[in-house]
Amino acid sequence: MVFMRGLFISAVLVSMAALAQQPQQPAPAKPSAEKPEAAPIKVQVNEVIVPVTVTDDKGRFVSNLEAKDFRILEDGREQNIAYFNRERNQPVVVGLLLDLSNTSRLHWTKFQESATELVLNLLTYEREDRYSGFLVTYGNDAELAVNTTNDPEKIVEKIRKLKPGGASTLFDAIYLACTQHKLVRGEPIEPRRVLVVIGDGNDNNSKHTLNQVVEIAQRNLVTIYGMSTKAFGFQSQGEDALIRLTQETGGRVVYPLEGVYADVAGFLSTPSDEGNYALKVGTGGYAAAIAAGMFNAIANIAGEVTTQYILRYVPKNSDSPRQFRNLSVEVKDLPNVKVRYRKGYYPYAP
């Protein structure tokens, strides 16, 4: 019995020694916690969208054109129009930018009413599935006051509570509007993007420059319109900036107070201190003239946003090294019409 137990122990010891002499398999490597840095992604714009407005010599919309009536060039090279639409009420996301600086105080109530009317005009319940909007205010700072919604009452309620006062940060407001609002599925092709600035174009407190916000608007395929708060008889340092922002992106500026006082006796004759630099007006025609000017401005902007021609094309020169591509749109056989469109685009995302 003792002999058998000794044989068993010896066999176990021999087996253990044999196992110790076998080559050991390397332990599986632990997965690394660090991931390789991803290369930056560049998204090329394969299809370019160009909203176009055509008006006659009296400023009336020309709305009966066909695709064959247009000619579009990129960097001087003619392109093939792949998509054409002239239907009214096409899907749009409208950002309203409202100036809360001191320069808005003179006619604040009227511009507050105008902003409300514009929202109700565009974001109607009849087309809530096609139109969305958001509100950005700018004074000492730019703020996204109401994010993207198709409920006009949310924006109207906020506008009613606003009070002007302070500096102006228009450029920061445009940058914010282009980069921080909640996106709607399909932007910027369908729906397309529009900003409406209600202000005088002045900026004295922004971190961004005019060149930067022109570029960010062009990169994001935004069309900018302006309803100027510049009053008749006054100069605005920001007027040139507002004109450039609109022209470069395919929009325009309307002036509801332009000529308001032309037929109002007593204006500029009795200066006073009301409303910062307000001047008394001698007749009751003043209020009616302002109301008419505001109504026409709203009608012009809303009409243009909803009646644009939409052209789309795939660039022939997609391998061009140019960072910014210049656009030119012509209407054949109609030499006296005014054609408005974005002046160019960037082929890569910012």
Secondary structure layout plus pairing:
Blueprint: H1 2-21, E1 48-55, E2 70-74, E3 77-78, E4 83-85, E5 92-99, H2 108-122, E6 131-138, E7 142-149, H3 152-160, H4 170-179, E8 192-199, H5 210-219, E9 222-228, H6 239-249, E10 253-254, H7 285-306, E11 309-313, E12 325-331, E13 338-340, E14 344-345
Parallel strand pairs: 5-6, 5-8, 8-9, 9-10
Antiparallel strand pairs: 1-11, 1-13, 2-3, 2-12, 4-11, 6-7, 12-14
Provide a descriptive summary of the structure in words:
The protein has about 350 residues and is an alpha/beta fold. It has two domains: about 55-85 and about 310-345, no CATH class; about 90-310, von Willebrand factor, type A domain (Rossmann fold, 3-Layer(aba) Sandwich), CATH 3.40.50.410. Helix content is about 30%, strand content about 20%. The strands form three sheets. It has a six-stranded mixed beta sheet, sandwiched between helices. A four-stranded antiparallel beta sheet has the order 4-11-1-13, with no helix packed on it. Strands 3-2-12-14 form a four-stranded antiparallel beta sheet, with no helix packed on it. Helix 2 (about 110-120) runs parallel beside helix 7 (about 285-305). The termini are far apart. The model is unreliable at about 1-45 and about 265-285 (pLDDT under 50).
